[in-house]
Design brief:
glucose-6-phosphate dehydrogenase activity; binds 6-O-phosphono-beta-D-glucopyranose; 14 helices; NAD(P)-bd_dom_sf; NADP; 489 residues; single chain; 17 strands
């Protein structure tokens, strides 16, 4: 059935992710009828909360949502809380008893989703204990959903994976990359492979370069502690940015199955030209924000943020040029950039097409405009196509015309939150929009080579003011090839 009956066990239920993303997503699924009315959510964490505390938190997290009071109460009554000590066996036994009791109350056939939304150092221990203490031994299916960070480099990711694999098979493991839950990220495949006007042009004969930007206006906020061990390369490039590169560059899958799609994506990562040694400085740029003005507000530099070393060498911005050594893409640069405290919050992909071999039609400044396909991922969702047309009138000038399609203007439906889709996919057993271990292995190895070089050479930080589009070197990365970043607004 497409209304799976399951218990969702959230480790780290007192945390920020649960409140901001998971509770609202579960609620939306419930409201849309995608969740069976017979479900249970069990919050697990160290704090001595009660069922009442978690239900209050769920209510708070749904403020601003329109809902009828009884509906909300009915929904909240499915939430339970179990105070827990990660290393104590009896904690697991009690949890198992609670789950068994709820399964019988709600007629849930032993299906359990274990959602890891807590400090990553416990992921492995919990997974192993779930197995040894019998919580994965049920009449139904059991799945492990695991949040980032999945390691901080290849060796730690490998170790974590080995631990988890003692308890769960690869096909029971759902590694979250929330970008894969975004409407327009999922749309990349459809735009590419369902359109006769794009697929034949989607290669190095017709595309000159592809630009992927994910810029944020927020700073590191209260995550300084985590971020100091991470930086933008690990936090955004290893996962979200490389996932978008794979989707843009993959060959068409022969079937729309998880394995076929994944294997095409993995081939892209295998074809990425490694950036090592001296090449790192040529192909990658790192930045760290200094003080500045964002959205009219003055803000501090990264080194003044909470829990950040005042001499920190952690990068909050990365730009890079990626090359994919295969027949389709040889010679086409994929430029990526991502950063915090930039001038605009925007995730966009710009596909720039090559110029025609002979074009006699210029604009008034004698410029030729390349065709662009722009995929707007967020905050707007849609596609734009930039073409050339004749300016009305006698001058014979050419002007760029932009065709815009926006998701919002279509029946005003709010697109579902990424987490909502991903949770639903997991309930249905569809792992397509989750990261496979092979993808993690390849992407970690790719970024490790870059971190290794950066770690040995101190950076000149801060090197971009808050509110800008990153350091100047990021512009030079493209100008050296005769390109420039296309503006995002
Ligand atoms: C997360 C990163 O994975 O993605 C955060 O850890 C970042 O640092 C976030 O802010 C960006 O997500 P989105 O959906 O706002 O682009």
């Amino acid at each position: 059935s497409n209304k799976p009956r399951t218990t969702i066990v959230i480790f780290g239920a007192t945390g920020d992710l649960a409140k901001r993303k998971l509770f609202p997503s579960i609620y939306n699924l419930y409201k849309k009828g995608q969740l069976s009315e017979e479900f249970a959510v069990v919050g697990v964490a160290r704090r001595p909360w009660t069922n009442e505390t978690i239900r209050d938190t769920v209510r708070q997290s749904l403020q601003g949502n329109d809902h009828a009071a009884e509906e909300l109460e009915e929904f909240c009554s499915h939430f339970y809380y179990h105070p827990f000590d990660v290393t104590s066996k009896s904690s697991y036994h009690e949890l198992n008893e609670l789950l068994t009791r709820l399964e019988s109350n709600y007629h849930i056939p032993g299906n359990r989703i274990f959602y890891m939304a807590m400090a990553p150092e416990f992921f492995g221990t919990i997974a192993v204990n779930l197995k040894t203490e019998g919580l994965t031994d049920t009449a139904g299916w059991t799945r492990l959903v695991i949040e980032k960070p999945f390691g901080r480099d290849y060796p730690s990711a490998y170790e974590l994976n080995e631990e988890i694999r003692q308890a769960f098979d690869e096909d029971q493991i759902y590694r979250i990359d929330h970008y894969l839950g975004k409407e327009m990220v999922q749309n990349i495949e459809v735009i590419r492979f369902a359109n006769a006007i794009f697929e034949p042009l989607w290669n190095n004969r017709y595309i000159s370069n592809i630009q992927i930007t994910s810029s944020e206006t927020l700073g590191v906020e209260d995550r300084g502690g985590y971020y100091e061990t991470s930086g933008a390369l690990r936090d955004m490039v290893q996962n979200h940015m490389l996932q978008m590169v794979s989707l843009l560059a993959m060959d068409p899958p022969i079937r729309l199955t998880t394995n076929e799609i994944r294997s095409e994506k993995i081939k892209v990562l295998r074809a990425l030209r490694p950036v090592t040694g001296d090449k790192v400085h040529k192909y990658f740029v790192r930045g760290q924000y200094g003080p500045g003005t964002v959205n009219g507000k003055e803000v501090d530099g990264y080194r003044n943020e909470d829990k950040v070393d005042p001499q920190s060498h952690t990068e909050t911005f990365v730009a890079g040029k990626l090359l994919i050594d295969n027949h389709r893409w040889a010679g086409v640069p994929f430029y990526i950039r991502t950063g915090k405290r930039m001038g605009i919050k925007s995730t966009k992909i710009v596909v720039q097409f090559k110029e025609l071999p002979m074009n006699l039609y210029f604009d008034k400044n004698d410029v030729m405009h390349p065709n662009l396909l722009i995929i707007h991922i967020q905050p707007d969702e849609g596609i734009s196509l930039v073409l050339n047309g004749k300016k009305i009138g006698p001058t014979g000038e050419t002007i760029p015309v932009q065709l815009d399609y926006s998701n919002d203007s279509v029946d005003g439906v709010n697109t579902p939150e990424a987490y909502e889709r991903l949770l639903y996919d997991c309930m249905l057993g569809d792992a397509t929009n989750f990261a496979h271990w092979d993808e993690l292995e390849l992407s970690w190895k790719y970024v490790d080579a870059i971190s290794k070089v950066w770690e040995t050479l101190p950076a000149q930080f801060p090197n971009y003011p808050s509110g800008s589009m990153g350091p100047e070197e990021s512009d030079r990365l493209l100008s050296a090839d005769g390109f420039h970043w296309w503006p995002l607004d």
